[in-house]
Amino acid sequence: MNKLLFFNAIASLFLLLGPTPAKSQPDWSRLDLSGPQAKIKACSAPEFFLGMQIGIPFSAGAAYNADWEEVLQAIYAPEHFENLFGTLGGELMAGNPSGLNTPWISLDGHIRPMVGLQAGVKIRGCFEIRNAVQYYRATWAGGFPVTVVPVEPGPVKSAEGMIEARAEGIVLESGFSIMPGGKNVQPYVSGGIRANIVVEQGSDIHLSGVKIPAAIKPANTAVSPYFGAGIRANILERWYLSAGASVGKVAGRRYLGALEFVAGLRF
């Protein structure tokens, strides 16, 4: 009897309290999946970019040391030596009369501004993959002493020979850049792999008006890493400008610094 009265009392208490409302929760069927309460966060869509790139290498480090053997082989080749003998009026001796010559002839190099295209895609907020292709043209020049022993009795003469070399090629880059922070103005660091592909090169020796083809090749095809840094500015709605500097091999021989400027479109 006591148990029956206890259960009746408990039942009456629940009837008096009424139904307890459930804890408020969002109705997931009515929420925007990309909204702040979404269970699945939306990822930003990839952003592509394409621009014209201009590179200005610092040519001070583009010197090349031509081997004396390469020069002597060209000068003393039978088809050229006889012509030089008649033009100079005597026997030709390349180098200083004392014979104290360095094992090479230093050629000063000059690399013209490189023009090309840059393209890539931004796949995360501050990370992008970039590729570039540029055309380069480089020249080298340097002189060397020549001694002429005349056929007829007389004083020994001195002259100067000139070496001129040239190369054309393509620079291919594939790498990445990181742009931490910023919206309209963004600093960036970049890096990747650079391939220098020689398309054409040649060299000549000029001596007393005689032009002699040579086999001196200051440029070569090579693959090497590159690194860079700079600033990008987003202008208007889709356009961007960037300016920076990079370090990598140009013409395949030495690491050179270069200024880089890009103007392009984001889409």
**Main β-sheet: number of strands, strand sense, barrel status?**
8 strands, antiparallel, barrel
CATH fold name? Porin
> Helix fraction?
10-25%
CATH class: Mainly Beta
Strand % is over 45%
Order of helices and strands: HEEHHEEEEEEEEEE
Please render the helix and strand layout as text.
Elements: H1 2-17, E1 47-57, E2 64-67, H2 68-75, H3 78-88, E3 90-94, E4 104-111, E5 114-122, E6 127-150, E7 157-178, E8 185-207, E9 210-214, E10 222-235, E11 239-250, E12 254-266
Antiparallel strand pairs: 1-5, 1-12, 2-4, 3-6, 4-6, 5-6, 6-7, 7-8, 8-9, 8-10, 10-11, 11-12
Walk me through what this model shows.
The chain is mainly beta. The chain has a single domain (45-266), classed as Beta Barrel (Porin), CATH 2.40.160.20. The protein has helices at 2-17, 68-75, 78-88; strands at 47-57, 64-67, 90-94, 104-111, 114-122, 127-150, 157-178, 185-207, 210-214, 222-235, 239-250, 254-266. An 8-stranded antiparallel barrel has the order 1-5-6-7-8-10-11-12. The protein is rod-shaped. Mean pLDDT is 83; it is low at 1-7, 13-17 and 38-43.
What are the salient characteristics of this protein?
mainly beta; eight-stranded antiparallel beta barrel; disordered N terminus; 3 helices; single chain; Porin
